[in-house]
Design goal:
Blueprint lengths: L1 H24 L15 H6 L3 H23 L2 H8 L4 H11 L5 H19 L11 H21 L5 H27 L3 H28 L6 H18 L9 H22 L2 H7 L1 H10 L1
């Protein structure tokens, strides 16, 4: 249990960094020229903006924390704990913008914490093993195709496709971080570099797809969907090829699944709440007031 608690704290720290970066970067995407077909050109434009780059720097701080969490705690626990970082956005909405935190937000946060506690108590075992390269590539291939499709087809895609591609790209990155952690524990340095490079690739593709979607869709129709995919898909992959199966006790397995569903529900609700959306849409609102 000590390792699980440490893993939760490390994952919460990593998620806090990711969400703090979101606060820093909020609104930057809409300040650059809208892209036609999906390409990495949008990221090149954003990379010229100091505030967006500062957010990337904050995100980089999360990587060692996430890796450390995955070396001591099960993937399901780490993924669930990642949802706690959303409280950064909630606090920012209250303190920076004066948004009221009501029963909806309190219930959402409570659901997230109850879900994380339930996942921890269900007793999932941490395993530094996986199903091997061939099985990993076979299972990950369909999801990889979805993540890269907008860039291979080189034509304008429906915004919902970009949202799904972004969520899938981030989810693959989160799962591959577990494989990188496995390689680190095993001192398999070549595998670590190869899987790490693949994780970076999907992170870049996910980020590009997310920024593209944010140019044409409201944050409330982008961020919650991406976050839920990013939270849930790695856990499913972990049970299939990640070496982390469900608890053998049916009651504990049921507790794990129920707790994950509660965490996902709390996450989705909080991401759609007024204070969180106010932070993500802050620059857009400021521009509207200036225009008036």
């Amino acid at each position: 249990m000590r390792d699980i608690i440490i893993g939760i704290l490390l994952a919460a720290g990593a998620s806090a960094c990711f969400n703090l970066a979101t606060v820093v970067q909020a609104g930057e995407t809409r300040k650059v020229k809208t892209q036609g077909a999906a390409s990495l050109g949008l990221l090149r434009q954003l990379a010229r903006r100091k505030r967006w780059l500062a957010g990337v720097g904050v995100q980089a701080l999360a990587i060692p924390l996430q890796l450390a969490a995955l070396t001591v705690a099960p993937l399901a626990v780490v993924q669930a704990a990642d949802a706690t970082g959303l409280i950064v956005l909630l606090i920012a909405g209250q303190k920076m913008l004066g948004e009221k935190v009501g029963w909806h937000e309190v219930a959402s946060v409570a659901a997230i914490f109850l879900g994380v506690v339930g996942v921890a108590l269900s007793g999932p075992e941490h395993s530094p093993e996986n199903s091997g390269t061939a099985a990993l590539l076979l299972v990950l291939a369909p999801f990889a195709l979805l993540a890269v499709a907008p860039y291979v087809l080189r034509r304008r895609m429906a915004s919902v496709v970009m949202v799904l591609a972004a969520g899938t790209g981030f989810a693959l990155t989160a799962f591959l971080m577990k494989i990188v952690a496995d390689s680190l524990i095993a001192n398999a340095w070549i595998a670590l570099l190869l899987w790490g490079a693949l994780a970076v690739l999907f992170a870049v593709l996910g980020l590009s797809s997310e920024q593209f979607a944010l140019q044409v869709r409201a944050v409330a129709r982008v961020a919650p969907i991406i976050f839920v995919i990013e939270l849930a898909l790695p856990i499913a992959l972990g049970s299939i090829v990640g070496g982390e199966s469900l608890p053998s006790d049916p009651a504990m397995a049921a507790l794990l699944i129920a707790s994950l569903l509660v965490t996902v529900a709390g996450t989705f609700a909080l991401m759609r709440s007024g204070p969180v959306n106010a932070v993500l849409e802050a620059d857009k609102a400021a521009e509207a007031r200036a225009a008036d």
